[in-house]
Amino acid sequence: GEKLPVETTVSFLIFYFTGNYSCGGELPIPSGYFSSPFYPGYYPNNLNCTWTIRTWNNYQGLFSNFRTECRFDYVEVYDGDLYSRVLGRYCSGSYVTLISTSNLLTILFHSDVSVTYPGFSAFYHSFYGTTGKYVYT
Question: Cα(22)–Cα(19) distance, rounded to whole angstroms?
């Protein structure tokens, strides 16, 4: 009867990923797609991504699958550059319709230092509007 000591071994396997991702830029016309980084996976913290759409025509765009932390993470859409009138701030929902008075639309995606979600995806398409305004759906 001699008691042997009990030995406990704990092992950890840690995966660490860093990768390139798209975060803003000028979007091509007449149509295209863009999304928050890593969509439909969770977006990173501390983001300020800015996309611009510039055209001579009107636009129809479809924002879908919004899912961000509404209190601190959002998509903001401007009627022109970042110093122009804000058309809307979004954090959930889909099928957003926007009417712009300029040929430039700026989209800002902001995330803070904590809590992330899957983010958003968006499709846009150029068309000639009959109202004389730029329409983004």
Answer: 10
